[in-house]
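haha ok so turns out i had the wrong file open the whole time. this is the CORRECT one, sorry everyone. sequence first:
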Amino acid sequence: MYRLYHHPLDPLCRKLRLLLAEKEIACETISEDVWERRPEFLLLNPAGEVPVLVAVEGGSERIFADSTAIAEYLEEMQPRPTLIGTTPEDRAEVRRLVGWFERKFYDEVGR
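then structure:
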C-alpha cells in the first residue's frame, strides 16, 4: 500500500500522480499544505517539501522524498509497463525530457 503526500497544484506531485495512474498503482493521496509545517508531516520529511511517498509493507513503513527518487523507486518496484524505456539511450532521452518538463512546468505554474 502506498500513501502520497502531495499538493494538488505542485507540478512534481502531478508528475507522480500521472506515473501512479499510468502504472495502475493504487495509492492513497493526502493533500498537504506545506506552509502549515505540520509536525506529523515534518517527521516524514524534515525539509517540509512534497511529494513524499510512504510505502507500507508488512507492517513497516518506508519513506521516500524527491519526485525523481520516488519515480525511480516505483519504476523498479513495478517495472511493467515501463515508463522509462529498456535501453540506456531510451532512459537518457526520457530523463532529458522529464528534466525539461519539470523545469518548464515548475517555472510556469510556480510563478
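The helical segments are 11-22, 39-44, 67-77, 88-110.
again sry for the mixup
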